[in-house]
Design a protein that fits this description.
Blueprint: E1 7-10, H1 16-27, E2 31-36, H2 40-52, E3 57-61, H3 69-81, E4 86-89, H4 104-132, E5 136-141, H5 157-174, E6 179-186, H6 201-209, H7 220-230, E7 241-244
Parallel strand pairs: 1-2, 1-4, 2-3, 4-5, 5-6, 6-7
Helix pairs in contact: 1-2, 1-7, 3-4, 4-5
């Protein structure tokens, strides 16, 4: 019951990490509003699962890259549930591509979704939290890619470093309002974003072998850390970045 009586908003929550976090927050007694852009049936299945846990949920379809989508998503949650207590910025894309011939459209879209979208959404949620006057928690899903490079991720890694930096700056800007801002940095998590990249069994085995815990991550591995940062268990934690990577980052030798 860590989030009893609270409302949680999560972007990109029809699948993957967002979905796992939405369900986990519902298990912790929160009502949940999810944003999604893809399959409506997937989004509705998340809503159904949350309701099966005895909580309420809504799904709002919009593109986080559109600045107007942020205040609209927050307003829908306020109308449905009366306020915003926790905001999880999760929506992101990573169309793998080489650096030297990176299409302008791919770079631009990745920046707009991953970084600009996070900025718009966090800003809208923060404004609502400030207006409510009771504080809140903002959690951004960054990546281990904020700390390390990737040959086919030159457009992606800067956005995740930016999201991590955004949380650090927002922790300072919003601390006076009782709003905590933190990020989680997942390692290789098996989701739709890297399905094609991990399709080769040999590559999957090679990547898993580099991880001290001996396996690739799954979306549910992020749900607990996100819940912790969202809850009052982390009431004195702000501006922090939590690696959730099975030990991959520290395995340098």
């Amino acid at each position: 019951m860590l989030l009893e009586g609270k409302t949680v908003l999560i972007t990109g929550a029809s699948q993957g990490i967002g979905r796992a976090a939405a369900v986990e927050c519902a298990r912790a007694a929160a009502n949940v509003a999810i944003n999604y852009l893809g399959d409506e049936a997937e989004a509705e299945s998340v809503v159904a699962e949350i309701r099966s846990l005895g909580r309420e949920a809504i799904a709002i379809r919009s593109d986080v890259a559109d600045p107007a989508s942020a205040p609209a998503f927050v307003a829908a949650a306020v109308t449905a549930f009366g306020g915003v207590d926790v905001f999880v910025s999760n929506a992101g894309i990573c169309p793998f591509h080489a650096f030297l011939d990176m299409p302008v459209a791919v770079l631009d879209r990745t920046m707009r979704v991953n970084l600009h979208g996070a900025y718009y959404m966090v800003q809208a949620a923060a404004n609502q939290m400030v207006a409510q006057g009771r504080g809140g928690s903002i959690v951004a899903v960054s990546s281990i890619s904020a700390l390390v490079g990737g040959e086919y991720q030159t457009h992606y890694t800067p956005t995740k470093a930016g999201v991590h930096s955004l949380m650090q700056s927002c922790a300072i800007a919003l601390g006076r309002h009782g709003i905590r801002c933190n990020s989680v940095l997942p390692g290789t998590i098996q989701t739709a974003i890297n399905k094609d990249d991990l399709a080769d069994p040999e590559k999957r085995a090679r990547m898993a072998a580099r991880i001290p815990l001996g396996r690739l991550g799954v979306p549910e591995d992020l749900a607990g850390p996100i819940l912790f940062l969202a809850s009052d268990m982390a009431r004195y934690v702000t501006g922090a970045a939590l690696l959730v990577d099975g030990g991959a980052f520290v395995n340098l030798q």
